[in-house]
Amino acid sequence: MTVFDYPIADIYVWLLIIAGVFTILYLLFGDVLEAVGEVSVFLNPVIILAFIIFFSATGYILEWATGLSSWIIMAVSAVISLALTTVLHVFVLVPLASAEESLGYTEESLVGRVGKLIISIPENGFGEIFIQSKSGIISKPAASYEQRAIQEGRRVLVLETRQGVLYVVPYEDDLDAPESGT
User: Fold this and answer.
1) Long-range contacts: 53-60, Cβ < 8 Å, 24+?
2) In degrees to the nearest 10, what's the CA dihedral of 124, 126, 128, 133?
3) Nearest to 143 by CA among 163, 115, 124
4) How far apart are CA 56 and CA 171, in angstroms?
5) CA-to-CA distance for 8 and 102, rounded, in angstroms?
6) Could you say which of 15, 65, 136, 152 is the most buried, measured as most Cβ atoms within 10 Å of its Cβ?
7) pLDDT per residue over 7-54, tens digit each?
8) What pTM was computed for the model?
């Protein structure tokens, strides 16, 4: 079978190459596309590119290895590609997306946590706090809840969060204890 005077096997190869190039470009610049916003789960570029790659690879292999009609090969390739893309989506992409979300945190989840000041908080001013978590160290701007100065190195308790700023008070266990250097 020919399409636009090209053998269908050549078209499968070109589809495979073009989808492969777009996949590599998506790996390099995919964050830019995701910053624009997700349109739909079904219009996810990874799923579309995976479908085209599976379809073209299966079509090329079946054209090369069998003597079936090109229309039958296209139908079989579409079914196989749909099945493989579904498996990829359900067993790889969805778990990866939910795992990525579980490593995140919300500012509200920081309320009640104890951290350490790495930049002093002046009276009516801002400093910086770091809080250790399971996914790493979180560093956020901090202000005194009571509008008083708190020195660098002090452990503090987060009482509130507003507009990305954590409002803290000195941690009670740390009020009378001398600085140990840890």
Assistant:
1) 53/16, 53/19, 53/20, 53/23, 54/80, 54/81, 54/84, 54/85, 55/15, 55/80, 55/81, 56/12, 56/13, 56/15, 56/16, 56/19, 57/12, 57/16, 59/8, 59/12, 60/9, 60/12, 60/13, 60/16
2) 70
3) 124
4) 62
5) 45
6) 15
7) 878 888 999 999 999 989 988 887 776 665 555 555 678 888 999 999
8) 0.53
Give yes or no for residue 182 having a pLDDT over 80: no
d(CA 115, CA 161): 14
- Per-range mean pLDDT, top range of 122-126, 132-136, 175-179: 122-126
Both structure tokens of 134: 């399971």
Task: Taking residues 88-100, report their average pLDDT.
Answer: 77
Q: Which residues, in sequence order, are bridge partners of residue 161? A: 166
